[in-house]
């Protein structure tokens, strides 16, 4: 029986740097809906990556994410999300190498799938992945393991002979993978430079070394 290597990637802060566009769209909502001044990019990314947070409160100083703000963000970000986004250095080379080595790859992102697919299509990256799952495709996003389990089932994962890894820059990625009983690699090149996983990679090609030499 042949064994499979299944590699599941987070998107924002792992595959791609989307921080500038996210910040621009959040600041558009702050100004147009709430009359608030612009936030710094680093504040936005730190808030998004925090394990426990209320983003409506942090971004818009309101306890609930109001429908008007949600609608404006989604319409603004749909146009904005492909303006400045780019893959991290080494990512495309890493994906090419993993694909050539027979790895089965997918994406599990807490971003809505319409944005994930739009950005990955725009960057010519979608074809690397057998399935792209966003927050709107599941009942419970990461750190719940639902996304991971759907992707493992898609790739017909057999825990008795296959290996599977989650690569992400966030504690929620690591926890989701742990909850699904697969390996974790913390991506220290992205939105977060410090975190814990079964392994830590400081650039994308180190991921390949860990997975392919397993």
Considering the chains and any ligands shown, give keywords for the structure.
214 residues; alpha/beta; Rossmann fold; six-stranded parallel sheet; two-stranded antiparallel ribbon
Tell me the strand percentage band.
5-15%
Residue stretches low in confidence (pLDDT < 50, at least 5 long) are none
Mind telling me the CATH class of the largest domain?
A: Alpha Beta
Number of helices: 9
Instruction: Please identify which CATH superfamily of the largest domain we are dealing with.
Output: HAD superfamily/HAD-like
The assigned structural class equals alpha/beta
CATH architecture classification of the largest domain: 3-Layer(aba) Sandwich
Q: Structurally, how many domains make up the residues?
A: 2
Q: Tell me the radius of gyration.
A: 17 Å
What form results from the Cα inertia axes? elongated
- Mean residue pLDDT: 95
**How are helices and strands ordered from N to C?**
EEHHHHEHEHEHEHEEH
Instruction: Please outline the major beta sheet.
Output: 6 strands, parallel
Q: What is the spatial order of strands in the main beta sheet?
A: 5-4-1-6-7-8
Question: Would you give the CATH topology of the largest domain?
Answer: Rossmann fold
Find the count of extended strands (DSSP E, 2+ residues). 8
Whole-Å distance between the termini? Answer: 18 Å
Q: Report helical residue fraction.
A: 40-55%
What is the structure about, briefly put?
The chain is built from 9 helices and 8 strands. The chain has about 210 residues and is of the alpha/beta class.
């Amino acid at each position: 029986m042949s064994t499979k290597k299944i590699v599941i990637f987070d998107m924002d802060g792992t595959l791609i740097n989307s921080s500038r566009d996210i910040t621009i769209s959040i600041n558009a909502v702050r100004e147009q809906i709430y009359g608030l001044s612009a936030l710094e990019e680093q504040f936005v990314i730190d808030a998004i990556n925090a394990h426990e947070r209320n983003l409506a409160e942090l971004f818009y100083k309101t306890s609930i994410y109001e429908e008007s703000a949600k609608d404006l963000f989604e319409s603004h970000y749909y146009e904005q999300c492909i303006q400045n986004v780019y893959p991290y250095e080494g990512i495309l080379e890493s994906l090419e190498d993993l694909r050539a080595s027979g790895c089965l790859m997918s994406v599990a992102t807490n971003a809505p799938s319409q944005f994930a697919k739009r950005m990955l299509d725009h960057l010519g990256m979608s074809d690397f992945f057998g399935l792209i799952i966003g927050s709107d495709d599941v009942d419970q996003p990461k750190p719940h393991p639902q996304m991971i389990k759907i992707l493992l089932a898609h790739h017909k994962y057999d825990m008795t002979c296959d290996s599977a890894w989650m690569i992400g820059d966030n504690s929620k990625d690591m926890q989701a993978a742990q909850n699904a009983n697969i390996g974790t690699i913390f991506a220290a090149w992205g939105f977060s430079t410090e975190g814990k996983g079964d392994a830590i990679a400081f650039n994308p090609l180190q991921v390949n070394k860990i997975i392919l030499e397993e």
